[in-house]
Queue: 4 jobs
Job 1
Amino acid sequence: MQSFALYPFDPPGDTVALRTDLRAWLAANQPTDDVVARANCWASFDPDFSRALGAAGYVGMTLPAIYGGGDRHPLERYVVIEELLAAGAPVGAHWIADRQTGPLILRYGSEEQRQRYLPGIAKGELYACIGLSEPGAGSDLAAVRTSARETSEGWRINGQKIWTTGAHLSHVILALVRTEEGSERNAGLSQLLIDLDTPGVTIRPIIDMAGNHDFNEVFFDDVLVPHGALVGERGQGWKQVTAELGLERSGPERYLSSHALLVALIDAAGADPDPAVAGLIGELTAEMWTLRQLSMSTAAKLAAGEDPMVEASVVKELGNAFEQDMPRRVQAIVNFDWDDEDDLARLLRALLIASPSFSLRGGTREVIRGIIARGLGLR
Ligand SMILES: Cc1cc2nc3c(=O)[nH]c(=O)nc-3n(C[C@H](O)[C@H](O)[C@H](O)COP(=O)(O)OP(=O)(O)OC[C@H]3O[C@@H](n4cnc5c(N)ncnc54)[C@H](O)[C@@H]3O)c2cc1C
């Protein structure tokens, strides 16, 4: 990549009507108005909400109808998730299954896996988690050591995953494992879909510094899963995972995590804002708009069946910088007391604590910059 490929964002159908219908649906079904919950929306688990959203046709939108999906275009889905995130809807329960596990099963999975998992995902009832990171294999994913050995009964899995968001509330983990004994780096890796209630799987909570339980350690102690748990081709796990990361890195969730703060700032500023506050609102809006264009063209490139790894990394890096800086920029300009209880202060408190993690999840800043540099031919 020498320049950012700007693909036109051109979804089929009437997207204005799609947005209007969804906004009306959200007005009738949004379970909470709490501003802090809204800011953390893609980590907020609410199975009732996910089920209702699925029944309304807003989950599994791009999956084929034969598997219970909506047969919609990926860019129609983009419009829907943008609306959901901007509204702060609690989409955490089905988020990972809808965003990446479902599409990955559709692309690489067997017919049996598609029939078994996709209808539940499309209903907003089946939740998945991402089994990539391990102690010693976070940024350096090719150092994965969790092993799966093929036996006559199936795959025997031993090892440990870490930082697994939502494992304690999910049904399945899509794990990157080493299936070829003696293999090194990114060769010999495969993906397995492991039901989390299989004997030998232990899930231990990791509580973050805000006191939340999102993360877990997942241990595999001689876990036996059927041969049919292999997703895609044996030994091709690296290729499949990098395709998955393209889906993970470029969506609107990479710049909208602090969106509720911008809305609260505008509300607090009132009709006659302080000029410095008005200036900041203008800057943040312009930056967000630019990020949105980059994210939408990356989505269009993905929808065209291409692999925009570098563009997705640019969106993630710039989006994370934006959503991470926003709380600090707002804190620098408004009268903020740590003990205040108004919406703006509560949001600032929550985001100042949470935002350092924004540039870690999905790949750290240094690693993402390395991918961009390679894409630009600089290393
Ligand atoms: C909110 C959140 C949710 C997450 N959810 C999941 C999940 O659901 N599933 C999952 O598998 N993982 C998840 N992760 C883990 C996340 O993907 C890893 O934390 C991340 O990839 C970094 O790995 P690490 O923590 O092992 O850090 P390390 O790899 O140990 O890195 C430590 C530091 O060294 C730097 N570094 C490492 N290698 C290089 C290099 N080659 N060049 C320059 N600098 C380098 C890193 O940038 C970082 O600053 C989540 C993390 C967060 C914060």
Job 2
Amino acid sequence: MTITPSHIIQYLYCPRFTFFEYVLAIPQYEEKNYKVIRGRDLHNEKLEQNKQYLRKKIGVKEKHLDQYLTNGLLRGKVDEVLLLEDGTMSPLDYKFAEYKDKIYDTYKTQLYCYAWLIEENFGKKVKKGFIVYTRSKHKLIEVEVTESDLDKIKKCALEIQLIIDNNFFPKATKYKKRCLDCTYKNICIK
Ligand code: SF4
């Protein structure tokens, strides 16, 4: 089984989510515990103009749209893979969302996952990624991507694989508040 950015996001919320959902196959009925807000596909002329403008602002030399990428362990679909003037590459993700002065950790995690996929598939370094908030007049936010961000994502992917392949029961999240409205709270030993 290949892992998706959603698995990584769930794992980071609580490693036991992975166990309950993918080892015991108990579905979670509530999505509110972790937020993966997908960008909605909006195809119109205005949007295309905005996209061109943003790529120019970033200094894009080459673009690859809607890339389904995998590295054997992780898979994901990146809205845009951009080659920048300094020879590095960047993922760009459109969010059908408003920018509220804070970048959700889930958004950052998605970008780190894409960065790892891009580095392995295109053989280029990724130092930053971009998020476009389509409901805030296409506000463009740059997110730094460091080696330690990538190491963290790689470590998570390996741990998820260990849980799923070896039925390994992982430790609980250290943030006990998360257990309060967790969908698995009645079956989980805390
Ligand atoms: S109850 Fe707490 S420890 Fe158990 S799965 Fe939910 S968040 Fe994780």
Job 3
Amino acid sequence: MKQYPSIPIASNIPVSAQAYKLSLKAPGLAQSADPGQFVHIRLSPGSDHPLLRRPFSINDIRGDKVAILYQVKGSGTELLSKMTPKDTLDIIGPLGKGFDIDPGKRHHLLVAGGMGIAPMGFLGRRLKGLKLKHQLFYGCRSSSELIKTDIKICSISSDDGSCGKKGLVTSLLPDRLDGCQDPSVYACGPWPMLQAVARICRDKKIPCQVSLESFMACGVGACQGCVVKGSDGGYLSVCDQGPVFDSRRIDWDQDCVI
Ligand SMILES: Cc1cc2nc3c(=O)[nH]c(=O)nc-3n(C[C@H](O)[C@H](O)[C@H](O)COP(=O)(O)OP(=O)(O)OC[C@H]3O[C@@H](n4cnc5c(N)ncnc54)[C@H](O)[C@@H]3O)c2cc1C
Ligand code: FES
């Protein structure tokens, strides 16, 4: 982990109704990041608002460029959406623990809900580089929120039926898992989706890793602001023990953490 106080923006372009792709010229970050890790970005150059940094998964690394995909949610991401290649950003990263890839597994199934697609691009390309068979299940609310990806898509679903199958992405997973030999699952998305994926994989005794979201302050394990309940009764800090966890380590009966 390193702090880069002045990373130049290469581009910042809309990729769907509410999401943007921000590309940064960041050779140091590009060399050291792994899929599932995130960057902590200060979004308020020259002002105190917002005071805290905001976390974003690393979506893509090409050469010395690092990209994130982000959805405009509040004041920080609104500010970010206005930034141009004339601006620079203060970034800490790469942070957290990413996905563990077991090259012995025969099928690697990626499950993304909404902006949970963000870390999957980088993970998909790492799997491709390792020549491991991988496929994506991608669920969104409607076609206007679908973000293009070059990962091989197995199934798309949408809440309103405007693209792919109407319904939840998790409804498509059990049949596919039954047809796979020796699969491994990687999921990122809203808490209810992760809960469902974790329970399906637990019942089928399939290894599953989940990328969790939580409100973050320090981003480096010092403030305990991001903790979730672990299945052993203790607490886990999402920023440094995660954001990616073996799904069996999480207490899935707790309320949604975000
Ligand atoms: C490890 C990690 C990786 C993330 N990766 C991405 C990513 O790749 N792309 C992306 O778009 N977002 C990602 N997020 C969520 C992102 O950090 C928040 O959307 C962002 O901090 C909102 O900042 P804001 O100032 O615009 O909104 P704020 O004004 O802080 O909040 C506005 C609303 O946004 C929502 N929000 C705030 N923080 C979070 C959060 N941490 N997670 C979910 N919703 C939140 C809440 O509903 C809140 O009421 C990630 C979060 C974590 C913890
Ligand atoms: S955000 Fe401070 S411990 Fe995780």
Job 4
Amino acid sequence: MSEKTDVTLTINGKDYAIAVEPRRTLADAIREDCGQTGTHIGCEHGVCGACTVIVDDAPVRSCLMFAVQAEGKAIRTVEGLADGDKLHPMQQAFMDNHGLQCGFCTPGFLMLAVGVLEREPNISDEALIDVLSSNLCRCTGYQNIIKSVRAAAQEMRK
Ligand code: FES
Ligand code: FES
């Protein structure tokens, strides 16, 4: 077994001091070493987007990043979206518009959409659909996901 490296990950504003092999993915470290299991793992090779988190304000596929690369960066996961009991507008919109079916892909969609809208609040509809098509929902519930993100975009612009 290769040697472990000490690394501190900052997830939703909290520091997690962990020891990981250099090859450990950020996705595995978030889930297994830091116990934040809201981030889901699907394909493990960058295709499905289920593992999307926000790293330094950009949506990132955490299965494609090593944990050691994330040291010193601000990582946001689905657990950090709500403000206490108050859901983030994106979470509320997914609830209101039936944007989640099985829900396995949902954290990845939420983080992708939040990350994109924070950077580009007035993103065109065409570009938004293009971005969302990069994540896979195996229930093929895209219509309601798109509807949810459009509704949240309006809310986030307020
Ligand atoms: S698990 Fe990371 S993209 Fe599929
Ligand atoms: S809700 Fe996305 S895979 Fe089912």
